[in-house]
Amino acid sequence: MSTSAELVSAGISIRDRFIALNQIHALRQCAQAREARGDFAPARVGGGAGVQRREDIRGDFTCWLREPFYPAEQRLLEQLEQLRLELNREAYLGLFELESHYARYPPGAGYARHVDQIRQNAARKVSMVLYLNVDWAPDDGGALRLYESDARTLDVEPLGGRLVCFLTPGREHEVLAARRERLSISGWFRGRE
Ligand code: OGA
Ligand code: MN
Question: Structural domain of residue 111, as residue ranges?
Answer without folding.
Answer: 3-36+58-141+157-190
